[in-house]
Amino acid sequence: MTKEFLPLSISVLTISDTRTLENDTAGDALISRLTQAGHKLAERAITPDSIYRIRAVVSNWLVDDKTQVILTTGGTGVTGRDGTPEAITPLLDKELVGFGELFRAISYQRIGSSSMQSRCLAGVANGKYIFCVPGSVDACETAWDHLLLTQLDARTMPCNFAKLVPRLTER
């Protein structure tokens, strides 16, 4: 039995001190891929790499009914300005550790030991998925093409994240 595609409403946040809508190639890559897959862009924003600004944007989307999935790009490295994991982790109800593990394993095949510098992560907060990936176009394409494309598609078997969206707030 073939399941029907269920489009999700996805918001994209670019975390950068230098990017604008005109030069946000990583955000553009995510938006291009999610719309080509049949999903809807709910919102797009760019914020400086500031823990509290990141939390403010993501927190607003967590209480916004039109967003089902949040994708962030940037701020997952190890420099002093990289604060995405510190901003997002306290918001999570559940962490999906397999996302970061798989992303780094896939990245290792492409960039070798440099993949260990990525602190990408994913989880569930207030019934919504949050996926935080590095800020390069290559990293965004890797995350989407190898992990998110299939897991955000309700037709992927034996299981997927999309099918679970209605159950994320069960108690």
From TrEMBL:
Report keywords, A-Z. Answer: Molybdenum cofactor biosynthesis
Q: Does the keyword Hydrolase apply?
A: no
Gene3D superfamilies given for it? MoaB/Mog-like domain
Name the Pfam families on file.
MoCF_biosynth (PF00994)
GO CC, sorted alphabetically, is: cytosol
Q: In which pathway does it act?
A: Cofactor biosynthesis; molybdopterin biosynthesis
- BP GO terms, sorted: Mo-molybdopterin cofactor biosynthetic process
Could you confirm whether the keyword RNA-binding appears in this record? no
User: What top-level branch of life does the organism fall under?
Assistant: Bacteria
Checking InterPro entries in the record gives: MoaB (IPR012245), MoaB/Mog-like_dom_sf (IPR036425), MoaB/Mog_dom (IPR001453), MoaB_proteobac (IPR013484), MoCF_biosynth_CS (IPR008284)
- Where is each MoaB/Mog domain found? 11-155
The similarity comment for this entry is:
Belongs to the MoaB/Mog family.
Q: What does this protein do?
A: May be involved in the biosynthesis of molybdopterin.
- The protein's name in its UniProt record: Molybdenum cofactor biosynthesis protein B
Q: Which organism is it from?
A: Stenotrophobium rhamnosiphilum
Q: Which gene encodes it?
A: moaB
